[in-house]
């Protein structure tokens, strides 16, 4: 390799990035599903359905949780990218949860 890194670091880097991307796609899919549920609940809530209003409130909190999770994943990807740019790959602590 021309950058001086051992050949085995690039597959590790690729696996870490792939895992993080998969986790980020999961976050987006969950937010998308919750958004669809909100669209279904909104007409009922506008008609005064108290249960629909409660569900909408719960969805808002769950969406915020997913936003935090997505931000943590992006921070992890940035950490890995900065490590790679510095000449080393640090796959530790790069899990999607956070």
Description:
Helices cover about 75% and strands about 0% of the residues. The protein has helices at about 10-45, 50-85. The model is unreliable at about 95-98 (pLDDT under 50).
List the helices and strands and how they pair.
Elements: H1 9-46, H2 50-85
Which labels suit this protein?
single chain, 98 residues, mainly alpha, 2 helices, 76% helix, rod-shaped, disordered C terminus
Order of helices and strands: HH
Strand content: under 5%
Question: Into which percent range does the helicity of residues fall?
Answer: over 70%
The general outline is: rod-shaped
**Biggest sheet overview:** none
Radius of gyration equals: 19 Å
> Would you tell me the structural class of the helices and strands?
mainly alpha
Number of strands: 0
Quote the average pLDDT: 83
């Amino acid at each position: 390799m021309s950058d001086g890194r051992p050949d085995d670091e690039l597959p590790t880097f690729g696996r870490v990035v792939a895992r993080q991307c998969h986790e980020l796609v999961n976050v987006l899919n969950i937010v998308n599903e919750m958004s669809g549920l909100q669209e279904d609940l909104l007409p009922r809530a506008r008609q005064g359905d108290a249960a629909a209003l409660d569900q909408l409130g719960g969805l808002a909190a769950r969406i915020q949780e997913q936003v935090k999770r997505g931000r943590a994943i992006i921070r992890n990807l940035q950490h890995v990218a900065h490590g790679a740019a510095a000449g080393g790959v640090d796959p530790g602590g790069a899990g999607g949860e956070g």
